[in-house]
Write a structure and sequence with these properties.
The chain is built from 2 helices and 2 strands. It is α+β, with helices and mostly antiparallel strands. It has a domain of 42 residues. Strand 1 and strand 2 form a beta hairpin. The protein is elongated.
């Protein structure tokens, strides 16, 4: 280091957005590789749909539930 230079402070690696992108990429690969029709039985109904739609719905529901739990925890900790 020469005279007059300040040491460069390293910033912590933002692991949450990186992990989020990895999970999103894995979910998209899983969703797009499963295009076969699949029977879905929920309570008293039965529907046949492409598996990728079922996986996409499941992924979105998981994201919504995670967001709701995070919001609830943040309110409780205030």
């Amino acid at each position: 280091m020469s005279a007059g230079q300040q040491p460069v402070e390293s910033k912590p690696v933002p692991w949450r957005p990186i992990l989020g992108l990895v999970v999103l990429a894995a979910a998209l690969v899983l969703i797009f590789q499963n295009a076969d029709e699949y029977p879905v039985h929920l309570f008293w109904t039965s529907v046949t749909m492409p598996l990728w739609i079922l996986l996409a719905i499941t992924f979105v529901l998981g994201v919504v539930v995670g967001w709701m739990l995070k919001t609830r925890r943040a309110r409780r900790n205030r």
